[in-house]
Amino acid sequence: MIKLLQNLIDQMSTELPGILAAAVVTVEEGMSIAEVSRREDIEPAVAAAYLASIVKSNAKAISLLADDEIVEDILITTSNYHFIIRHDDKQPFFIFVMTTKDEWLAKARMLIKKYETQFAGFASYFEKNYQ
Question: Which pTM value belongs to this model?
Answer without folding.
Answer: 0.89
